[in-house]
Specification:
disordered C terminus; mainly alpha; 13 helices; globular
């Protein structure tokens, strides 16, 4: 009876996961198919099947050459915003989470409660106050207007604090201090290595969040040469009513924009798998 019930739950869970996978993969499939079509085929052929001619290469070439190669500038901007922002945010989250988890100081619980409050505040609620603050500081329409908010991750700090509490052993820290290592050396040599799976998680969450962020760049930036991909593609999409040739540009640019995130996921997932395995052994 128990085996039959377990098998039934396995079937149910597998079916639910399959439905969820289809839900997320269908839009990706549509983008891939649509990126292979010309403007005419987009509206005269079935949406989920290929057109009469294969235009993928021509569409991708047009994406990178349109408007004096502006897409390359948008791509570079997104790499700067997402890469630098996620890297700095991960480092600061690791340092803050480790400090809250392992150091005794007055107001520690208050600091952590404030961080939890920051997790609950949606980014859309802080976009306008950030714009008003940055406009007074002269940081709007600059790289810093998008980069500085990206370097802070309350969720990352919360996750690193939980992970540091569970995985960083106090005896390891004491042995490092007895060997004469300073606090910064202990953090960089011992703590960061122990927290690697959590750091990869924070980095990926922050990377995807910054890469897909639309509202903050929309508020902060006016110069199209500072646009990330999200804002640049929206600028192209807004012109499709007047110029239908922007349809293939927008869809082709969307397809290209997904590739860096897919590469990051494939490359970094092995750290997730290793971290989960380590946790199961320790448990």
């Amino acid at each position: 009876m128990t085996t039959t019930r377990s098998r039934g739950w396995t079937i149910v869970v597998t079916a639910v996961l399959a439905i969820v996978a289809i839900y997320f993969l269908v839009p990706v499939y549509w983008v891939i198919v649509a990126a292979t079509k010309s403007s005419g085929d987009l509206f005269t052929t079935p949406g989920f099947w290929f057109g009469r001619t294969m235009e993928l290469w021509n569409n991708v070439v047009q994406v990178f050459t349109a408007s004096d190669h502006i897409y390359l500038r948008w791509l570079l901007n997104s790499v700067i915003y997402a890469g630098v922002g996620a890297l700095v945010a991960t480092y600061l989250a690791a340092a803050g989470g480790y400090a809250i988890a392992k150091y005794e100081f007055r107001g520690r619980n208050l600091v952590f409660a404030t961080v939890l409050g920051g997790v609950l505040v949606p980014s859309t609620a802080t976009a306008l106050p950030l714009f008003l603050l940055f406009s007074k500081l002269g940081l709007t329409n600059t790289y810093w207007g998008v980069l500085l908010p990206a370097m802070v991750s309350p969720f990352g700090l919360y996750l690193c604090r939980i992970y540091a509490t569970a995985t960083v052993d106090d005896s390891v820290l004491e042995s490092g201090r007895l060997d004469g290592a300073g606090e910064l050396r202990i953090f960089h040599s011992l703590v960061l290595r122990s927290m690697a799976p959590a750091l990869v998680t924070v980095f990926l969450f922050q990377l995807v969040g910054i890469w897909n962020n639309f509202l903050l760049p929309l508020i902060m930036l006016a110069d199209d040469k500072l646009y990330p991909i999200t804002l640049g593609l929206n600028a192209w999409r807004s012109q499709v009513d007047r110029s239908p040739e922007f349809y293939p540009l927008t869809i082709g640019g969307l397809l290209v924009s997904v590739i860096p995130l897919a590469i990051a996921m494939v490359f970094l997932q092995r750290y997730w798998r290793g971290g989960l395995t380590d946790g199961s052994v320790k448990g």
